[in-house]
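Title: Prediction job returns without error message
Component: structure pipeline
Severity: low
Priority: P3
Assignee: unassigned

Description:
Job completed but the reporter wants confirmation the result is attached to the right record. Sequence as submitted:
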Amino acid sequence: MRIVADDGIPYIDRVLDQGHELILLDHNEITTERLKHTEILIVRSVTRVDEALLDGTEVRVVATPTSGTDHIDQTYLASAGIHFISTPGCNARSVAEYVLSSLYLLKKQSLISLTDITVGIIGCGHVGTSVASMLAAVGIKYKLYDPPLQAAGDEREFVSLSEIQSADLITLHVPLHMGGAYPTYHLVDNDFLSALTPDTIIINAARGGVIDESALLEYFTHDKLKSVVLDVWENEPQINRSLLSKAIISTPHIAGYSLDAKFEGSRQVAEKISNFKQMEYSDPGKETILPMTNSVVTVTDVMDDDEVIQFAVLSGYDVSDDSDRFKQVSYVHGSEQEKISVQHFSGFRKNYPVRREFTNFSVILPPSRKKCKQKLEGLGFKVKLQE
């Protein structure tokens, strides 16, 4: 089989079975002409796959190692008889860790208190569920809102949108749907924002179009919103400078960019391609490909349990490192407004440093901290009690 894949997809050449003709291209080189005699195309979210790209090619399978699929025209693929493969949930833990790191960073900066906070989760699929699980592990209260899942018979306890809007912090984990029964485009608009208190914090690690950025900026201008954490933006990679500076945490769509998540996305793509082609798949195993790591975090009795968890979470992943580097930007001057350069946004993502998930960290606790041990294990850390 002739396979064309984006060369920015980690380990794709290691997880695909040998024997295929694999051609790796920069995403800008993935054109109709280069796909003329290609059977399988594997892309990242930066490549729009539609009739304009595939018409006249021999592509019969399109795959993306991402959970989001709004860059793929699935209606066209179905009409053309092209099989589609995605990897929902491959980066769920990575995004959930981004949210948790944001929460503990906000706590560290005295912007929130996690002892009496209620988090509203909008979108309760793979990522939202993982966020809820982590919040439950450390005893943070949360509410769930997901009308499509509720209508489909999901038995979890869901609340109304108005109850979500009364939460202290709202985190978004929905796909981007422009229409249909449950559209999410500009879900957070002027009407949504007007129902919030000025102390509300919003986290968006879903898709940029879920928030109406013009409305969001208006609320910031009039001090009607406490703060916002943004990993995704409208008009990526040219994003709004004013919103970048106003957000307490700003990152360039990297919440799901842990090395573990990247590997899992590639592995799932390879396995699903093999299954579709009715070929046996040999899983190479993450431990044989990813760099060995087992960082150790040691704490003492000086810290209480909340401080221990904060220390462990931010030792595992401190989102402020990404945010601080991203805010050191260059700008493009335009007639309407200044936007950050495409090169800065894209280059940050392409050269993103190695980030491992909590499961690769060991925490050493004093022997008396059994309750804290249980909480940390609920977050995925390996935990040992000192003898």
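Comment from assignee: result matches the submitted record. The two ends are 56 Å apart (CA to CA).
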